[in-house]
Write a structure and sequence with these properties.
The complex is a heterodimer.
Chain A lengths: L3 E10 L2 E11 L4 E5 L6 H9 L6 E6 L2 E2 L5 H7 L1 E4 L11 H14 L14 H13 L15 H14 L4 E5 L7 H17 L3 E5 L3 H7 L2 E6 L2 E6 L1 H6 L1 H8 L4
Parallel strand pairs in A: 3-8, 3-9, 6-7, 7-8
Antiparallel strand pairs in A: 1-2, 1-4, 4-5, 9-10
Helix pairs in contact in A: 3-4, 3-5, 4-5, 5-6
Chain B lengths: L5 H15 L1 H4 L17 H24 L6 H18 L4 H23 L4 H22 L1 H4 L5 E2 L22 E2 L2 E2 L3 E6 L2 E6 H22 L1 H11 L1 H5 L5 H26 L2 E2 L6 H14 L6 H15 L5 H7 L5 H11 L7 H15 L3 H18 L13
Antiparallel strand pairs in B: 1-6, 2-3, 4-5
Classes of the chains: A alpha/beta, B mainly alpha.
């Protein structure tokens, strides 16, 4: 049994069958990549996992519990954190405040009316956030506006925010899309470090084969809304079906 | 001090000094001088300054922090006023129960409206709140006449029961509002040479409540809850994927700001015990939006400045008529005098809206952060002047 079990999931948008009969099992403490050409249904699948979309058929179980019908914030509280394709951070807030928010969410839950004590008085949360910023090598940027940072730094902050919640499953949606080569390599190194040092499962959707083969323990290839193969990276590399799906019939 | 950061403490002290010494600060010109026209230190107007200050501070908790622009906050102010007047009619002329009830009723009413309106965001939210406020206004104006006394407005009469007080005073008139016996209208006058300073009990009650409201607001701004409200404004998507439910946060902010509005409404009725439906009209809701933006949305002191600014214009500029203008320009030759008066005439007196509108436009275009940003720019400019001309110009921006 994997930590995430997707069974027979199907999703239809009007006339388009975006996903059909998707089965996926993500083993605990592995890095599982989901790859596939444009329109293969990767993002739709991810949205079904985090509560943004509800599949028409099938089930999604996380750690033995169904996630279907739960709101995104509830699924997050279960232990699934998501990193977006374009970094989603609190741009108007400082880097430190960005880090404080998930730390408060971890401590106080989905809603807490603590309107009288000051943020400065919450030493435990402050320490945790500062510590996380140091781990992400962002301590010197703590008073900067988050929106003013580079794409790579925003990504780093977003990943740090997710990690501060100590999730069991980290979902990454094309984490290096639109990044310069140096930023991409930094992100790969960061994710490798996270995967090796933490008790965490990572599921990653990615276009960039360089990223996929540097990180993944296991790869699922999705084509036209359904899994084509699931195998180890070295077998995927030589698989003719995968080449065909990516490059078309003529290749 | 008071569990606040140093910067916030000094802000609180500034507001305390401004409110406590307002009778002096707002009365700088001696009686009978040509500029006495610009004196604003009379009880009626000072009360309005602080009451609308409270209203705007509360509105800013919703609009400044979460970015949800409500166009119906006057409804809560109106509901607060009606509740307070009913308290004066039924219970006693003491303002304490009246103010407490007005806050509670406005809180419940805003819970109801907020629960429905907050299902949408952006322009749809604004339109929903506007619709609710106009509905409330029309109900108060016609349908709910038994409660609101329709277009005449709710007033005290000699037949009111006032179970804990007297229906009428010994000489047969309607009793006046008081705080445990201290009459709200009682005013101590201090004549210093040509100056006449007025210290009004009602004003000081309002001022103390403004200080308490301001103190509470500082706490809300600096609390984890306040940070979450700013997170709502910044990125709701990230919030929801960080395990936070943004709905109760926005609803709590809506109810808190509704209660501030109710408090302002209750105080208004405590100073002058009547309530009319026009307090709930959309122009009144729009006014508090203007106050907040003019002063600086999302800043602590901005809404207070904005409220003072607009109320000053409404009450002082509107009183400058042609007669006053002629007396100002009487030193000029006749033709010039008439020309000047004709030129300035559209901007003062009944035309004060025009001046306010132009100022509002200028502030929004050149100082998007409101009067507070203006103050900050002046402070930064003075600092640069002091540091010498070799200092780099402009504020330092973080590197991309």
């Amino acid at each position: 049994m994997g930590i995430l079990e997707v069974k027979n999931v199907g999703k239809r948008f009007g006339g388009l069958q975006a996903l059909s009969d998707v089965n996926l099992s993500v083993k605990e403490n592995t890095v599982h990549a989901i790859i596939g050409p444009n329109g293969a249904g990767k993002s739709t699948l991810l949205n079904c996992l985090v509560g943004k979309l509800i599949p028409d058929t099938g089930s999604v179980m996380f750690d033995g519990q169904s996630v279907l019908g739960r709101a995104p914030f509830e699924i997050n509280q279960m232990g699934i954190s998501r990193v977006f394709q374009t970094p989603e951070i609190f741009g108007d807030l400082t880097v430190l405040e960005n880090m404080l928010i998930p730390c408060f969410a971890k401590r106080d839950g989905a809603f807490e009316l603590n309107a009288l004590p000051s943020v400065q008085g919450q030493k435990d949360v402050l320490e945790k956030a500062e510590h996380m910023l140091e781990e992400m090598n962002m301590a010197d940027k703590r008073h900067m506006h988050a929106a003013a940072m580079s794409r790579g730094d925003k990504r780093r902050l977003e990943i740090g925010m997710c990690l501060s919640q100590e999730p069991r499953l980290l979902l990454l949606d094309e984490p290096t899309a639109g990044m310069a080569r140096a930023d991409t390599n930094n992100t790969i190194d960061l994710l490798k470090e996270i995967a090796s040092e933490r008790d965490i499962t990572i599921a990653i959707i990615e276009h960039d084969m360089h990223v996929v083969f540097s990180l993944a323990d296991r790869i699922t290839v999705l084509a036209q809304g359904t899994p084509l193969v699931e195998d180890d990276p070295q077998n995927i590399r030589g698989n003719p079906k995968v080449r065909e799906a990516y490059l078309g019939e003529s290749a | 001090m008071f569990g606040l950061e140093k910067r916030d403490t000094s802000m609180l002290i500034i507001v305390a000094v401004l409110t406590m010494f307002a009778p002096f600060i707002l009365n700088p010109f001696p009686e009978g001088s040509a500029l006495a026209q610009f004196n604003a230190g009379y009880p009626d107007l000072m009360q309005r300054f602080v009451i609308f200050g409270i209203f705007a501070i509360g509105f800013n908790i919703l609009f400044g922090l979460t970015g949800y622009l409500s166009f119906g906050h006057a409804a809560f102010l109106g509901v607060g006023s009606y509740s307070a007047v009913w308290m004066f009619k039924l219970l006693s002329m003491n303002v304490v129960p009246a103010i407490i009830l007005s806050v509670i009723v406005a809180g419940l009413f805003s819970l109801l409206i907020g629960f429905v309106s907050l299902r949408r965001s952006g322009i749809y939210f604004s339109i929903l709140t506007l619709a609710f406020a106009q509905m409330s206004f029309n109900l108060a104006y016609s349908v709910l006449t038994p409660i609101t006394n329709g277009e005449t407005g709710l007033q005290l009469t000699l037949n009111d029961p006032r179970v804990l007080g007297a229906s009428a005073t010994a000489d047969g008139s309607i009793p006046v509002t008081n705080l445990f016996g201290l009459e709200m209208r009682s005013t101590f006058e201090l004549a210093l040479g040509p100056w006449n300073f007025q210290f009004n009990a009602g004003y000081y009650l309002c001022a103390f409540i403004l200080l308490a409201a301001f103190y509470l607001t500082i706490h809300i701004f600096r609390s984890p809850f306040g940070m979450m409200l700013r997170a709502v404004k910044s990125n709701q998507q990230r919030m929801n994927y960080t395990g936070l439910n943004s709905k109760p946060y926005t609803l709590a902010a809506f109810v808190i700001s509704g209660m501030y509005a109710g408090l302002a409404g209750g105080l208004m009725a405590s100073m002058d015990p009547l309530a009319g439906a026009e307090r709930m009209q959309w122009t009144a809701s729009g006014e508090v939006v203007l106050m907040t933006i003019l002063g600086g949305a999302g800043t602590l002191i901005g809404p207070v400045l904005g409220a003072g600014f607009i109320k000053y214009f409404e009450n002082i500029f509107s009183k400058i008529n042609d007669g006053v203008l002629h007396s100002w320009f009487s030193f000029l030759p006749d033709g010039m005098e008439n020309a000047m008066v004709t030129l300035i005439h559209p901007f003062v007196g009944k035309g004060w809206h025009l001046t306010l509108g132009i100022l509002f436009m200028l502030v929004v275009i050149f100082l998007p952060g409101g009067l507070v940003e203006g103050g900050q720019r002046i402070a930064a400019w003075i600092k640069r002047k002091r540091a010498g001309d070799d200092a780099p110009a402009g504020k330092t921006e973080p590197a991309e």
